[in-house]
């Protein structure tokens, strides 16, 4: 994989929704625009990546959480997005991806994620997401919220579909910001950004 494509995957993956009412996304010092969780930053896994067995997810859409306080719903929806919806969508057939994301994500983020997955398909590559959430804090202003997370993604990475070789590996303890909005009384992820910081 060329250095240019690695940078492209990172740029597409690490983006955020502009205009966050809290102003927290711009406070991190990085430009914001719609996008998805950076599933595997382009950190090389070494000279001889080891083959890995492709996961066989159940492909069951997450159930949207609509009970509890707003903060409890935001927490649950963010965790479901990180640990269930996105990992399944990245390895699912193209026809199943939107349905896996919709319970916990919304446009414009869904479109960005689907475009990224389609681009990987064209390269015969697959992103395998296995994130461990170390911490998660929430700031909310009306119908907009920011979930500030510390995530370990070292168990995931980018894989070649044909050879099953791991091409990149996720990074440990990275700060990721998730923008959520309330849509018809359901909190959904609308974008993410990376602060470029360890936590």
CATH class: Alpha Beta
Q: What kind of sheet is the major sheet?
A: 4 strands, antiparallel
- How many discrete structural domains? 1
What is the radius of gyration? 16 Å
Distance between the termini: 29 Å
What low-confidence regions span 5 or more consecutive residues with pLDDT below 50? 1-53
Give the name of the CATH architecture.
Roll
Number of strands: 8
Instruction: Give the SSE order as H and E letters.
Output: HHEHHHEEEEEEE
Shape: globular
- Contiguous helical run count: 5
Give your account of this protein's structure.
- The chain has a single domain, classed as Nuclear Transport Factor 2, Chain: A, CATH 3.10.450.50.
- The chain is 30% helix and 27% strand.
- The strands form 3 sheets. The chain has a 4-stranded antiparallel β-sheet, with helices on one face.
- The longest helix is centred in the middle third of the chain and has 22 residues.
- The radius of gyration is 16 Å and the shape is globular.
- The two termini are 29 Å apart.
- 40% of the residues are buried.
- The N terminus is likely disordered.
Secondary structure layout plus pairing:
Blueprint lengths: L2 H11 L10 H4 L15 E2 L25 H22 L2 H8 L7 H14 L2 E4 L3 E10 L2 E9 L4 E4 L7 E2 L4 E10 L2 E13 L1
Antiparallel strand pairs: 1-6, 2-5, 3-4, 4-7, 7-8
Task: Name its key features.
5 helices, Nuclear Transport Factor 2, Chain: A, 30% helix, two-stranded antiparallel ribbon, 8 strands
Briefly summarize what is shown:
This protein is α+β, with helices and mostly antiparallel strands and 199 residues long. It has one domain (3-45, 64-198): Nuclear Transport Factor 2, Chain: A. The chain has helices at residues 3-13, 24-27, 70-91, 94-101, 109-122; strands at 43-44, 125-128, 132-141, 144-152, 157-160, 168-169, 174-183, 186-198.
């Amino acid at each position: 994989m060329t250095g240019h494509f690695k940078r492209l995957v990172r740029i597409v993956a690490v983006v955020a929704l502009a205009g966050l009412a809290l102003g927290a996304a711009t406070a991190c010092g990085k430009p914001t625009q719609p996008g998805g969780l950076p599933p595997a930053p382009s950190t090389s896994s070494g000279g001889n990546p080891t083959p890995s067995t492709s996961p066989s997810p159940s492909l069951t859409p997450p159930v949207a959480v609509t009970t509890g306080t707003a903060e409890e719903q935001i927490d649950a929806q963010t965790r479901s997005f990180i640990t269930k919806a996105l990992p399944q969508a990245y390895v699912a057939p193209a026809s199943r991806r939107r349905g896996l994301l919709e319970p916990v994500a919304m446009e414009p983020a869904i479109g960005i994620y689907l475009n990224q997955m389609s681009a990987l398909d064209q390269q015969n590559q697959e992103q395998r997401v296995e994130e461990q959430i170390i911490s998660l804090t929430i700031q909310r202003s009306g119908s907009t919220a920011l979930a500030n997370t510390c995530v370990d993604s070292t168990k995931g990475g980018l894989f070649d579909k044909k050879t099953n070789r791991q091409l990149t590996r996720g990074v440990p303890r990275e700060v990721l910001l998730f923008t959520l909005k309330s849509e018809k009384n359901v909190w959904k992820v609308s974008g993410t950004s990376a602060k470029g910081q360890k936590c």
